[in-house]
């Protein structure tokens, strides 16, 4: 069984791996560092940093450790929003070093898909829902019902979740600047 990863700890893990990359002897860390860092960037949905890491990874590392290429396959599918390919690529067998990260990534992609669907659709065909979630139609129906969505034989009606808005904290200095700006515009 794959041990779950503590998502709150991911930024610290990324920072440590980035430091290992920068401080590596001869400027090239182990393939494990590149592979874990790439997987963690994908977990954070930081596709830009993932792409830059892939581009700066030496070809010799890519050739000698094919798993990093498999992780990047997931990244390419994420970049293109190709959900069926994302899930099929994620369901591969991963090494013990990153299996827990890839399982967490699969769960996160599914959570992001649920959020996207709830915001973008008033009704979605069950076949499309199962593709977005990377599961069978029956499993997709169970997930949808757990979210409080209405499911019939052909369509699912997502329920939009209320947006959480953070109240901005306006300082006295910011309020003063805003007042000066509005006063200037009124003159």
Automatic annotation (TrEMBL):
In the UniProt record, which is one GO cellular component term?
Answer: cytoplasm
InterPro entries associated with the record: COP9_CSN8, CSN8_PSD8_EIF3K, PCI_dom
GO BP, one annotated term: COP9 signalosome assembly
Q: What is its main location?
A: cytoplasm
In Pfam terms, one family for this protein is CSN8_PSD8_EIF3K
Keywords attached to this Swiss-Prot or TrEMBL record, sorted alphabetically, are: Cytoplasm, Nucleus, Signalosome
Q: Which domain of life is it from?
A: Eukaryota
Could you tell me where this protein is found in the cell? Answer: Cytoplasm; Nucleus
Taking every annotated instance into account, which residue ranges of this chain make up the domain PCI? 5-173
Query: Is the keyword Cytoplasm in the record?
Result: yes
Q: Which family does it belong to?
A: Belongs to the CSN8 family.
Q: Which PANTHER family match?
A: COP9 SIGNALOSOME COMPLEX SUBUNIT 8
Protein's name according to its UniProt entry: COP9 signalosome complex subunit 8
| Source organism of this protein record | Diaphorina citri
């Amino acid at each position: 069984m794959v041990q779950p990863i503590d998502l709150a700890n991911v930024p610290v893990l990324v920072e440590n791996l980035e430091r290992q990359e920068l401080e590596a002897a001869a400027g090239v860390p182990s393939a494990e560092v590149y592979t874990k860092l790439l997987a963690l960037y994908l977990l954070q949905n930081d596709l830009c940093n993932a792409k830059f890491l892939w581009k700066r990874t030496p070809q010799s590392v890519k050739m000698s450790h094919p798993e990093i290429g498999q992780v990047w396959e997931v990244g390419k599918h994420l970049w293109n929003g190709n959900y069926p390919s994302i899930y099929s690529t994620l369901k591969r067998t991963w090494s013990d070093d990153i299996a827990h990260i890839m399982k967490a990534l699969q769960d996160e992609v599914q959570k992001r898909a649920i959020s996207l669907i709830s915001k973008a659709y008033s009704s979605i065909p069950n076949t499309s829902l199962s593709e977005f979630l990377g599961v069978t139609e029956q499993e997709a129906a169970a997930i949808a019902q757990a979210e409080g969505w209405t499911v019939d034989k052909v369509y699912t009606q997502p329920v939009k979740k209320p947006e959480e808005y953070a109240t901005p904290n306006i300082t006295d200095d910011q309020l003063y600047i805003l007042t000066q700006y509005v006063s200037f515009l009124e003159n």
